[in-house]
Every structure is written in C-alpha cells, then in structure tokens.
Amino acid sequence: MATSTPTSTGTVAPSGAKGHFPPFAKETFASQILWLVIVFVALYLLMSRVALPRVGSILAARKARIEGDLAAAEKLKADSDAAIAAYEKALSDARARAQALANEVQAKQAAAAEENRKALEAQLNVRIAEAEKSIAATRTAAMANVTSIAAEAATAIVERLIGTAPAGATVEAAVAEALKR
C-alpha cells in the first residue's frame, strides 16, 4: 500500500512524492487555456444555437399563453358583468311586477272589503228598521196598557179618597188629557 504525504500546495500525491497541483503546472498551462477556449466556444455555440432558441420559444409560448389567458379572463369577466347586470335588471323588474301585483291584490281586497262593509251595513240598516218597528209597536202596546193602567190607578185613588168610584169615561178622558201634555 502506498503512503501519501502532504505537498506544499496542500495536496497529497498518491505515491508520496511531492508535486504540483496539475492545473497550476506551468508546463500544461497553455494547453489548458486552449481547451478552455475550445470548450467555451463549443458551449457558447451549443447554447446560442440549441438551448437559447428553445428557451426563447418556450418563453414566447408562455407569454402568448398568458396573454391569451388574460384575454379570455377579461372576456369572461365582461360576460359575468353583463350577466350580473342582466340579473340585476331582471330582479328589479321582478320586484316591480311583484309590487304592482301586490298593489293590485290590495286594491281588489280593499274593494271587496268595501263591498262587504256596504252589504253588512245594508243588512244592519234593515235590522235596525225592523227593530225600530218592533220598538214602536211595543211602545204603542205599552202606551195602550199605560192608559188602561193609569185609568185603573186613577179610579182606585179617587175611590179611596172620596169613597165612590168615578165613571169610567170621565177617568179615561182625564188620563188622555194628562198624557197629551
């Protein structure tokens, strides 16, 4: 097995011998520069001819896609704004129709209530007229009874006071005279 020893540049040579780090060797410096330039030019050509056009086309496609998506989003936003405006208009029209319908129903109900009130008032007027007739008939009957009761009472009072009963025609005439006043 080979032993390794540290070199002055801090590297260890596998054989244990001290040497220079190959990239820093003066003897190979010119060839390394040449290969560096060749590799750089090859990578530059490869990047400029193959990779960068592909990246550019990908970026252009992405940009076009993003712009297309933004245009579609704007169109959809305009469509949704138009749909919202149509919805709001339909909603306000529906509210107006509902209000008109409610007013119409209210007017019909008010007319029906007024008609019912008039019919009920007419029925009540008929009942009141009948009641007044009944009251008048009862009052007439009562007045007739009052006359006879008053005549009987007057006869009884006069009989008690003077001891004799007055004539029935005289008592009835006096009661009729008193009721006229």
Low-confidence stretches: none
Cα distance spanning the termini: 166 Å
The coarse silhouette is: rod-shaped
The description of the largest β-sheet is: 2 strands, antiparallel
- Mean pLDDT score, rounded? 86
Structural class: mainly alpha
Strand order of the largest sheet: 1-2
Percentage of residues in helical conformation: over 70%
**How many runs of DSSP E, i.e. beta strands?**
2
Order of helix and strand elements from N to C terminus? EEHH
Number of helices: 2
The amount of beta strand, in percent, is: under 5%
Overall number of domains: 1
Radius of gyration equals 65 Å
Describe the structure in your own words.
By secondary structure, the protein is an all-alpha fold. It starts with a strand and ends with a helix. The model has no long low-confidence stretch (mean pLDDT 86). The relative contact order is 0.03. Helix 1 runs antiparallel to helix 2. It has one domain. Helices cover 81% and strands 2% of the residues.
Short note summarizing the structure:
With 181 residues, the protein is mainly alpha-helical. 81% of the residues lie in helices and 2% in strands.
List keywords for this structure.
181 residues; mainly alpha; two-stranded antiparallel sheet; rod-shaped
